[in-house]
Design a protein that fits this description.
Elements lengths: L1 H28 L5 H7 L7 E6 L2 E8 L4 E8 L5 E12 L4 E6 L5 E3 L4 E7 L7 E8 L12 E2 L16 H7 L8 E6 L2 E8 L4 E8 L5 E12 L4 E6 L5 E3 L4 E7 L7 E8 L12 E3 L13
Antiparallel strand pairs: 1-2, 2-3, 3-7, 4-5, 4-6, 4-8, 8-9, 10-11, 11-12, 12-16, 13-14, 13-15, 13-17, 17-18
């Protein structure tokens, strides 16, 4: 009897050891989750908030349907400077499972310990009902578009297709930015635009980059200033002198603020021949209403 019990105990021990060994082997052989799989697993609905720390950067983002943009912050939670911090958002259609657009990356910025950077990324591309986000830290390895670095999330693509334009007045009202927010726009006539306000110099600065394989003609930028208390526009800056941009060429933008006090702003970029007379207005644009060029599409 004791001998039979001993044999039974030995068999159970061998079975348990075999089971544990197989599980560990399966874990070791299982391939790591790819970026696309990770994004599929972590997609959020439009009323959910993204909050996560990666590489020392705490990213908190949420979708704001009123402004049709994603807003939030990225914070350095470490005791050292985080170099070239930037943020991307990927949009998805849950019906097809496909990615519809990529927003960003935002302009890279070194964050001091405890520093918080506000993030605003306007939506673009086809309809979507899911999204995910990730911060990137460190030097970019993806070329002039600012892609690469240490990131969490999937691959970087060219972004979404241009969406149908809003009317100029509605767009400017919906997309006004505070003075500490970035203006970011991708794939408007195949250019990337980033602008920000420098309070110390009372100046808006940034760049427009041709990310296509063809020349983009007569590129120019305008900025509109607003007073949130009255809701009125206080000044229009620009347009900048028109310039043809070769593939990969970047145009630096510097526009001094002027006029009455303001606490909100928006911007748009224009392309092609002007039809608005000596003022240089018109053409194809992304942003608010502008001369004979009509109401432009896109932020």
């Amino acid at each position: 009897m004791n001998r039979n019990f001993g044999i039974l105990t030995l068999l159970v021990a061998i079975l348990m050891a075999t089971t544990i060994g197989c599980e560990r082997m399966a874990e070791q052989m299982m391939p790591p989750m790819s970026g696309g799989d990770e994004e599929s697993a972590n997609q959020l609905t439009l009323d959910e908030t993204y909050e996560n720390i990666r590489n020392g950067a705490l990213l908190i983002m949420a979708y704001d349907p009123a402004s049709k943009s994603f807003k939030g912050t990225v914070e350095n939670t470490t005791d050292a400077i985080l170099p070239q911090v930037r943020v991307e958002i990927h949009l998805f259609d849950s019906k097809t499972g496909n990615s519809t657009a990529e927003l960003g990356p935002t302009p890279p910025k070194d964050l001091a310990p405890g520093e918080i950077q506000n993030i605003v990324l306007p939506e673009e591309g086809p309809p979507f009902d899911r999204w995910t986000a990730h911060p990137e830290v460190g030097p970019s390895s993806g070329g002039s578009g600012g892609e690469g670095g240490n990131e969490t999330g999937g691959e970087h693509g060219a972004g979404g297709d241009e969406e149908p334009p809003m009317s100029g007045g509605d767009e400017e009202s919906a997309n006004q930015l505070t003075l500490d927010e970035f203006y970011i726009y991708d794939n408007v006539q195949n250019v990337h635009v980033d602008l920000l306000y420098d309070a110390s110099r009372n100046t808006f600065w940034g760049s427009v980059e041709n990310i296509s394989d063809a020349v983009v003609q007569q590129v120019r930028v305008e900025i509109h200033l607003f007073d949130s208390k009255t809701g009125n526009s206080t000044a229009e800056l620009g347009p900048t002198p028109p310039k043809d941009l070769a593939p990969g060429e970047r145009l630096d933008i510097v526009l001094m603020a002027e006029g009455p006090a303001f606490d909100r702003w928006t911007a748009h970029v224009e392309f092609g021949p002007s039809s608005g007379g000596s003022g240089g207005e018109g053409g194809n644009e992304a942003g608010g209403e502008h001369g004979a060029g009509g109401e432009g599409g896109g932020n």
